[in-house]
Amino acid sequence: MSALIPRPRLRVAPGAVHVPGWLTLDEQRELVVACRAWAMGPVPIRHTRLPRGGVMSVRTVCIGWHWQPYRYTRTADDVNGARVAPFPDWMVELGRRALVAAYEDPAAGDGYTPDTALINFYDGDARLGMHQDKDERSDAPVVSLTIGDTCVFRFGNTENRNRPYTDLELASGDLFVFGGPSRFAYHAVPKVHPGTGDPATGLASGRLNITMRVTGLDDGSRGRAPRA
Ligand SMILES: O=C(O)CCC(=O)C(=O)O
Question: Is 193 annotated as a binding residue?
Fold first, then answer.
């Protein structure tokens, strides 16, 4: 008989915390249903085109605000011009609960109001290179949720794409939060392990990742703006 090896909660760097198995199976199922609907529209999930002509291997759909390199807009001008689906209140609540769990502080979620989420789908070959999440005007934490296949998640430093970095595995139901001194750390997904997810989540294959963020934008704002 095989025993499940418990995976401990890990503070990877100041402000960066991995909480394994945070989402229940029911929560994962509900998120899969919601993400599947968002992937259909009003803006369909797509491979993001990069300014130099490359195409990302990950497929992405956004809610709240649409991200394209390297700005947020309400309408998906690089896809079909439609306004993205609104960011639901239940997801704001989920984001707040995530901060409480990650920082083990009942007040950690107070005032946290994420207004965008990038929903990434990785098939077995998809990867994401080292990058910073820096198109937001806010330094509020990023809340990242994994459903489906396990991946290698590389969490680096705030200076450059190189070492030092830590490689860890994010499995279905895991939460990863990066805020505070780690908010602008470089990070990447160099590998997904196909076939490691549990189809009971509703995801037969691949990896779903949801990153909630605070853009710091309002409807009067467009494009990249310097952080305060
Ligand atoms: O898939 C992940 O775990 C990371 C996603 C990410 O880095 C991003 O959307 O910017």
Answer: no
Domain ranges of the chain: 16-213
Mean pLDDT, rounded, for 106-135: 97
Structure tokens at 212: 């909630």
Pairing of strands 151-155, 10-13: unpaired
**Nearest Cα residue to atom 2 of ligand 1:** 209
Asked if CATH classification 2.60.120.590 holds for the domain at 16-213, the reply, yes or no, is: yes
- 3-class secondary-structure state, position 34: helix
- Which three-class secondary structure state does DSSP give residue 4? coil
**CA–CA gap between residue 67 and residue 69 (Å, rounded):** 7
d(CA 36, CA 203) in angstroms, rounded, equals 10
Integer angstrom CA distances of residue 77 from 40, 137, 183, 217? 17, 20, 28, 17
CA atoms within 13 A on the CB side of 150: 12
* 131 annotated as a binding-site residue: yes
pLDDT tens across 134-165, in order?
A: 999 999 999 999 999 999 999 999 999 999 99
Give residues (CB < 6 A) around ligand 1.
118, 120, 128, 133, 144, 153, 187, 189, 209, 211
Task: Tell me if residue 18 falls in helix, strand or coil.
Answer: strand
Gap between the Cα atoms of 126 and 40, Å rounded = 20
Give, as one character, the DSSP assignment of residue 16: E
